[in-house]
Amino acid sequence: MNGFGILSFVLLASAPLCAQAVMAGLKGGRAAPLFPTDAAVLEMREVKNSLPCGVTPTRTELGFDFVFQAGYAARVRLRDLVDAGNSLTAIFRVTSDSSPERPVYFEQKWSVPPLAAHAAGVAELVGAFNVGEGDYQVDWLLRDRQERVCSAFWRTSARMPIKAGAVTAGLPAGSITSAGTEPDAAHESSNGAADRRLAVSVLLNIGPGTPGATTISPAQTDALLAILRSITREPRVGSISVTAFNLEHRQVIFQEEAMRRVNFAGLKKAIGSLSLGTVSVGELADNSAEARFLVRLAAEQAARKRPDALIFVGPKSADEAAMTRDILTQLGDARCPVFYLHYAPDPSLNPWRDLIGSAVKYWRGREFSISRPVDFASAWSKIMSQLGRSNALLAPER
């Protein structure tokens, strides 16, 4: 890096400042007036560099919850921040081509530590926001305490790489929200048909994506929660039961039954509190303990809750060597269709069947490898098609 280190400043706040026109559409937002000079820069789209910086728009990408995330990365030389004061402020607005009269404003603040006069290095400042399908204009500026400004302007587009109707979009076309906003996963019935929709049980395997790893990456956690969020958003699902578990410790860490909404905040907290990498000697000595725990848990969910579908979600677990025929027979008969969505960013790293896959095969279920959102969309379309053929609940009204 030629002796130049990258310093990412601590983010003090990242929240949308909602213009009055869109204030009602964003949760927790409140209107905040722009400085006249800021408003002028954004309105006239003047390129300013009195505060030298470089801005690169990040690629707009589709997540597993079928929400697009866009954003930027800005770089400022530390020597240009010596006289910046103790903070930097980014103001940017995002405008949908479909609603040019309703821009959404965002503000971010960073603290600037004391810097030597000839400080070497670069500060990297990043921001992100969510959008629905469509085309957008982004107008951005960065200001320091000395009123020096850097500005940039760009276009971004979001296009669903999946045919319409295959999945339920996470945000309506033209929508704009902050990256931390949880999309509404509830689909209330407006025609009294809620009792005709599916009751689904999800068994969420929470564990490292790499065998032997002792941590769960934030990217993996986000992907698993996004897949679950997409399932809850499916209009044909009326209620969902979620059981999150960790095979290594044979432990259920979160459970909710027959809910219309999933407590994602509680689930994420439970995942964060999971302590991996510490296993007792007794646990290590019992090679079949994980298989027996899984079979007992799966059989209980399938028999007691009697769902219309049982869906496993998660990374691959230990290989199937410990899943003996005697253990498998304890599963009993599957009373509903069974599916396995195994999340594998790189399927080639672990191409072998795991414990969950062995149980799903015994139940004559279907297994899908999920690496990208389009993989999940394809798998989910096949799942719903199978359930539609086998379950009269999904038959159209006459």
Description:
The chain has 398 residues and is α/β, with parallel strands linked by helices. The chain has two domains: 6-164 and 170-178, Immunoglobulins (Immunoglobulin-like); 194-388, Rossmann fold, CATH 3.40.50. It is 21% helix and 31% strand. The protein is built from eight helices and 16 strands. The chain has helices at 36-44, 218-233, 264-272, 281-285, 289-304, 325-328, 355-362, 373-390, and strands spanning 6-7, 11-17, 54-62, 68-77, 87-96, 104-111, 122-131, 134-144, 149-158, 176-178, 198-205, 237-246, 251-259, 309-314, 338-343, 366-370. The strands form three sheets. A six-stranded mixed beta sheet has the order 13-12-11-14-15-16, with helices on both faces. Helix 2 (218-233) links the parallel strand 11 (198-205) and strand 12 (237-246). The radius of gyration is 25 Å and the shape is elongated. The model is unreliable at 1-31, 185-194 and 392-398 (pLDDT under 50).
Straight-line N-to-C gap: 67 Å
Give the number of DSSP strands.
16
User: What would the CATH topology of the largest domain be?
Assistant: Rossmann fold
User: Helicity range of the residues?
Assistant: 10-25%
Mean pLDDT across all amino acids: 83
Summarize the biggest pleated sheet.
Answer: 6 strands, mixed
Class by SSE composition: alpha/beta
User: Which CATH class of the largest domain?
Assistant: Alpha Beta
Question: Judging by the overall fold, what is the CATH architecture of the largest domain?
Answer: 3-Layer(aba) Sandwich
- What general outline do the C-alpha atoms trace? elongated
* Spatial sequence of strands, sheet with the most strands: 13-12-11-14-15-16
Poorly predicted residue ranges: 1-31, 185-194, 392-398
- The value of Rg in angstroms is 25 Å
